[in-house]
Amino acid sequence: MNKIIHTSTQVSATSLDSAVSTQTALIIGGSSGMGLATAERLVQRNVKVILVGKQADKLAQAKLRLRDISPDVAVETKQLDLYSQSDVDALITEIERMEAPIHYLLNAAGTFKPLAFLSHQMSDYQAYMSLNQASFFITQAVAKNMSKHGGGAMVNIGSMWAKQAIKATPSSAYSMAKAGLHALTQHLAMELAEYGIRVNAVSPAVVKTPIYQGFIPAEQVDQALEGFNSFHPIGRVGQAAEVASTIDFLLSDNASWVTGAVWDVDGGVMAGRN
After folding, report:
1. pLDDT at 7 > cutoff 50
2. Mean pLDDT computed over 228-255
3. pLDDT digits over 28-71, tens only?
4. Which of 13, 23, 163, 229 is 20 to 30 A removed from 148 (C-alpha atoms)?
């Protein structure tokens, strides 16, 4: 198991209140993968996005990409380490001090490495739980903001593995964390509905994102994922943009009567067996 380095990086000085836009989305884990793909859709409908991520270079690249798509839409980045309590506390404090509303929240941060249950150690187990803890309290701060401004919409990125065990990809700790996120989605949907806040989740199967580079060399990811094509009844792995389109729908007013849902976006995996 690769050791997770808990480096404390100061939250960038740009204020969350600084830019003016009709709507604002906060994306935790927004510098790549499904988080960035969702941001690409949001800026196209003139939503200001605030991307939270750990790596400054990836955030800078993401910002340039979004500016290329929609030059006139505000894009902010926040560099922080979700495994650093001081970084998380700093972001929560900034959210709590905001006067402007946050309309959308996407919890897209994640880590994944298949590991047999008998091989798990406290450190890698805690990595998943620490990420859930950070997401929990950031979400709480955003919910307080939304409740003061008439509501909003949240989406959590869960996982097919939280619903179904796959022996070829042992992931008990990861699945336990994602199952907790599914449960949180439903509890928040019930508790926050009276404030006009909708909370949903998506449950993807194998989607081509940089998350696999945590345990597969980047140049080998495409070939490795091809082995999972037949696992999906549709016949191929998913793309980040395909999941993002569902997330965008759930965040939008087009899904105004949807809350507490955990939607399978999985190429048919949960429908049955080939």
Report:
1. no
2. 94
3. 999 999 999 999 999 999 999 999 999 999 999 999 999 999 99
4. 13
| pTM: predicted TM-score of the whole model, two decimal places | 0.89
Phi, psi dihedrals of residue 63, rounded to the nearest 5°:
-65, -45
- Say if residue 214 is exposed, middle or buried (CB neighbours under 10 Å; 0-12, 13-18, 19+): exposed
150: left (phi over 0), alpha (psi -120 to 50) or beta: left
Q: Which domain holds residue 57?
A: 23-271
| C-alpha triplet 78, 108, 255: angle, nearest 5° | 115
Residue 122 sits in a domain whose CATH number is 3.40.50.720
Q: Any idea what the Cα angle at residue 210 is, between residues 121 and 35, rounded to 5°?
A: 105
* Count: domains in the chain: 1
